[in-house]
């Protein structure tokens, strides 16, 4: 499984290109509530590392 993961690209270059295009043309939107929820989850996870 490790070898399989190692042979895969670490990111989806087509998705990155699509996001870059959306940002450049002003059509990229962010769901502020989803972003805030994910930030809170991340903060909770970091708190468990201490």
Automatic annotation (TrEMBL):
UniProt name for this protein: Negative regulator of flagellin synthesis
Record-linked InterPro entries: Anti-sigma-28_factor_FlgM_sf (IPR035890), FlgM (IPR007412), FlgM_C (IPR031316)
Positions of the Anti-sigma-28 factor FlgM C-terminal domain: 2-41
SUPFAM superfamilies: Anti-sigma factor FlgM
Similarity annotation: Belongs to the FlgM family.
Pfam family, one: FlgM
BP-aspect Gene Ontology terms: bacterial-type flagellum organization; negative regulation of DNA-templated transcription
